[in-house]
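sorry for the late reply, my laptop died twice this morning and i had to redo everyting from scratch. anyway the thing you sent over, i finally got around to it. pasting the sequence first so we're on the same page, its 161 residues, then the predicted structure underneath. double check i copied it right bc i was rushing
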Amino acid sequence: MPSFDIVSEVDKQELDNAINQARKELATRFDFKGIAAEILPEKDKITLTADDAAHLHGLREILIGKLSKRGVDLRNIEQDEPAISSVGHARQELKIRQGLEGNKAKEIIQAIKSQGFKVQSQLQDRQIRVAGKKRDELQAVIQFVRSRDFGVATSFKNFRD
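ok and here's the structure:
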């Protein structure tokens, strides 16, 4: 039976490339000379630190610009509120969402079911497996999911007959 998976992933290599480009721009920008500003990537988040809120805002704009130019979908980047200390140091975390969380996955599954497609969809390991008897029906599901905005980046993989 033909099937495919609906996933929500951020390409790690593109993310790494965008961070490296932002670091290079940070090193050459005149308004960041002598300022302690850093971009610290971790497993599932990026921490931005700067001397004050204005430089933190500029740093975040640089990084977001590089991420969008590299094709990283910004719907999977969740920005926390900046934490500004009494001394003036500013810090902000950008969380990277990988996979579909329970509520978003259920919303997508319900939307597919409400359209009356003759397919089975189930949540498996932070991705949705959609299976049906006809390829045309699966392609219609792909077109439907692409046409709707669920608040997360959706992509499709493992299309098999």
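The mean pLDDT is 88.
thats about all i looked at so far, will dig more tmrw
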